[in-house]
Write a structure and sequence with these properties.
The protein is an alpha+beta fold and 268 residues long. It contains 5 helices and 10 strands; from the N terminus they run ααββαββαββαββββ. Bound molecules: ligand MTE and molybdenum atom. Molybdenum atom binds at residues 94-95, 142-144, 236-237.
Length: 268
């Protein structure tokens, strides 16, 4: 498996990537803003001004519009396109935050902090392999402008959470938006050099996979061995490699790239 480094974690790289991301974010906000205003008959509507919550009316509309868009994409039955397995290729190794340190996959265990302050749990790769295996061939889309079709194999994050009662207070199956279900999932590399936060609807999406194989082979270290996230309803930045910890929580988790100017949601 090709494993050549294409990005080095240094400040020049950081600055370049943040610059590019800010540009894209500004563009997407402009598009969102225009669409939000169009629905209200154009700029004359700007005159409506403030309402009680201190957010100006046009801005509030954009927020609502973004929420509505997210709900549409995540509504029941909305899947990211699946591709024929023949279309799958090895993506470049992109992003090595949290992969720098010496690491022995054999002594790795997945740490989990279940919802509602239940005792922390540990899982081995065999624990994960004992759950139903799913395969999915989806596009990995990097915000830097490239994408690749990749075949993933592993276990649905939803199946994992359900089987071990990780995301609800009473052991019931998790429901996004449900009263007893955690609102967010935090995922971190061992040592937390890289970390992502997910809304529950995206985390429980049927194509969101804790992956231990890529393109028919165990993950290489560069692609996140022994376990990474494949989440095709999000950009590449959320597809965290080398997961060390998963936490189910109502506190919106920190997110490496969101803290560097990029959109926290990062959905497609
Ligand atoms: N631990 C970790 N995971 C990460 C990153 C990273 O820097 N560190 N980069 C992300 C980004 S920006 C992308 S596009 C994908 C790339 O996955 P790949 O290297 O398997 O192609 O990994 C994501 N997961
Ligand atoms: Mo990326």
């Amino acid at each position: 498996m090709n494993d050549h480094p294409t990005s080095t974690p240094n400040s020049n790289h950081d600055a370049a990537v943040v610059g590019e991301m800010n540009l894209r974010l500004r563009r997407s906000l402009m598009v969102g803003g225009a669409a939000g205003l169009a629905g209200f008959g154009g700029l004359s509507w700007l005159g409506l001004g403030q309402s009680g919550d201190g957010i100006s009316a046009p801005r509030r509309t954009v927020l609502r519009w973004n929420e509505a868009l997210a709900r549409n994409l995540l509504g029941t039955g909305r899947l990211a396109p699946e591709h024929p397995v023949q279309a799958a290729k090895d993506p470049r190794v992109n992003g090595r935050f949290g992969l720098e340190n010496d690491f022995d996959p054999r002594s790795w265990k997945l740490q989990v902090e279940p919802y509602g302050g239940q005792a922390a749990k540990e899982f081995t790769l065999d624990d994960l392999r004992s759950l139903p295996r799913v395969e999915s061939v989806t596009e990995l889309k990097c915000i830097e402008g490239w994408s690749e079709v990749v075949q993933w194999a592993g276990v649905r994050l939803a199946d994992f959470a359900t089987k071990f009662s990780l995301a609800t207070l009473d052991g019931s199956p998790p429901q996004p938006g449900g009263k007893r279900t955690a609102q967010y999932v935090a995922l971190e590399t061992p040592g937390r050099s890289y970390y992502v936060g997910l809304d529950m609807a995206s985390a429980l999406h049927p194509q969101t996979i804790l992956a231990y194989e890529m393109n028919g082979a165990p993950l290489s270290l560069g692609h996140g061995a022994p376990l990474r996230l494949a989440i095709p309803v999000k950009y590449g930045i959320k597809n965290i490699k080398r997961i060390g910890l998963i936490r189910f929580t109502d506190q919106r988790p920190g997110d490496y790239w969101a803290e560097r100017g990029y959109d926290w949601y990062a959905g497609l």
